[in-house]
Design brief:
Largest sheet: 8 strands, mixed
Strand order of the largest sheet: 1-10-9-4-5-6-2-3
Number of helices: 7
Order of helices and strands: HHEEEEHHEHEHEEEEH
Shape: globular
Strand content: 15-25%
Length: 202
């Protein structure tokens, strides 16, 4: 192919990629996944938590891969087990090179009951390599606020009680910034197509 012809082909590709139709296609892909990307990344505060192994964990460690974080609790009767089951199924459908770049993290909205051991046992049922975080209420609420995933602390910490929390997942990029949300209800087929696009565009 002549150099002049190659330049015209390259120019044509750039026009397609930058065209409103291409942008609409991408937006349609995100809509089909119920996936919202922020127009600008948001920095997360530096907070100290505890992981499911009982080790200290800093939010500064949320780097180097893509993290999907959601708030829940191990005694949750419906939303949390459904979320974990859905994400396990989704991850199994992703190509290995994409799956390896993703880490799902359950952040406790019920630290009174969610000890590291409780989180470790609970997440172990799913056999999917999911991580867990707990800690003191101030740190958990600080992370909740910065991620835009609200939860209402329980008024009591004994007996049988529930905790109200968001059903959305926050997407944190490899640079440790908040990038967007996977919104409930989950559209798993759309996510299977959209998540690789988001990751590979990095």
């Amino acid at each position: 192919m002549r150099l002049a012809n190659f330049r015209w082909v390259l120019l044509g590709l750039l026009v397609v990629i930058c065209s409103p139709a291409f942008a609409l296609d991408r937006n349609a892909l995100l809509d089909e996944a119920n996936l919202l990307l922020l127009p600008r990344e948001r920095q997360l505060p530096s907070l100290e938590l505890i992981d499911e192994q009982g080790n200290a964990f800093s939010t500064n460690s949320l780097r180097g891969r893509w993290y999907l974080l959601f708030f829940g609790f191990t005694a949750c009767p419906d939303v949390c087990p459904t979320t974990l089951s859905d994400m396990r199924g989704l991850f199994k459908q992703l190509q290995p090179e994409i799956r390896e770049q993703l880490q799902l993290v359950l952040v406790s909205a019920d630290p009174a009951r969610d000890t590291p051991e409780a989180l470790r046992t609970y997440l172990g049922y799913y056999r999917a390599g999911f991580r867990g975080l707990t800690g003191d209420m101030d740190a958990l609420q600080g992370l909740s606020k910065s991620l835009g995933l609200p939860f209402v602390p329980a008024e009591k910490t004994e007996g049988d009680y529930s905790v109200s929390h968001s059903g959305n997942l926050a997407i944190v990029g490899p640079d440790g910034t908040l990038r967007g949300y996977i919104r409930a209800p989950f559209k798993l087929e759309g996510l299977r197509q959209a998540l690789p696009e988001v990751i590979e565009a990095e």
